[in-house]
Design a protein that fits this description.
The complex is a heterodimer of chains A (109) and B (117). Chain A is an all-beta fold. By secondary structure, chain B is mainly β. The termini of chain B are far apart. The chains are: A mainly beta (109), B mainly beta (117). Chains A and B meet through β5, β6 and β11 of A and β5, β9 and β10 of B.
Chain lengths: 109, 117
């Protein structure tokens, strides 16, 4: 069945550092790919999405490109802020929404 | 944007009793809703897909008789944990996609923290 694998956390970075959170997927069809973020004490929010190969999703300085050849959807940000501290979930959707295990990100001032 | 409301946000119940959790899409219709369980510091595990007007589809290993799902209208799905036991204590989250196409966004409820004592 479909699955999502993302890098284990926690990830700790200093403010203004470059961020990459790796995500790869296994799917039989042509799913859409998403990154969701869960801030402390809050529910999940959509961060960005890409619906087909080579699409790039972007929001709040975060980007991810749908790479069919490598079945990847890595999340990147050029300069992180303390307010980016949260748990990030990679997900794919076909008839269901399947999540990766989540990566906890800590940004130090 | 679209809003999904989940109620209650937390509940404590005695072992052996049943608990009902509601998930409502407030400003859109949802023919499908998803129910997840999230363990501490872990991912969301899909439990079942709730389908309006028909039976829910359960994931492998999820007990249908234990976790009763009803999707009676286009804006409401309920999850009832029957005869709850301490091992059912968890964080339950519902999600409603805004459309049936795979590229449509899903919105999430705030979650329900269930504690069975």
């Amino acid at each position: 069945g479909n699955s999502v694998t993302q890098m284990e956390g926690p990830v700790t970075l200093s403010e203004e550092a470059f961020l990459t959170i790796n995500c790869t997927y296994t799917a039989t069809g042509y799913p859409s790919l998403f990154w969701y973020v869960q801030y402390p004490g809050e529910g999940l929010q959509l961060l960005l999405k890409a619906t087909k190969a080579d699409d790039k999703g972007s929001n709040k300085g975060f980007e991810a490109t749908y790479r069919k050849e490598t079945t990847s959807f890595h999340l990147e940000k050029g300069s992180v802020q303390v307010s980016d501290s949260a748990v990030y979930f990679c997900a794919l959707r076909d008839d269901k929404i399947i999540f990766g295990k989540g990566t906890r990100l800590h940004i130090l001032p | 944007g679209a809003v999904v409301s989940q109620h209650p946000s937390w509940v404590i119940c005695k072992s052996g009793t049943s608990v009902k959790i509601e998930c409502r899409s407030l400003d859109f219709q949802a023919t499908t809703m998803f129910w997840y369980r999230q363990f501490p510091k872990q991912s969301l595990m899909l439990m079942a897909t709730s389908n309006e007007g028909s039976k829910a589809t359960y994931e492998q290993g999820v007990e249908k008789d234990k976790f009763l799902i009803n999707h009676a209208s286009l804006t409401l799905s309920t999850l009832t944990v029957t005869s709850a036991h301490p091992e059912d204590s968890s964080f339950y989250i519902c999600s409603a996609p805004t459309g049936g196409a795979y590229n449509t966004e899903a919105f999430f409820g705030q979650g329900t923290r269930l504690t069975v004592v």
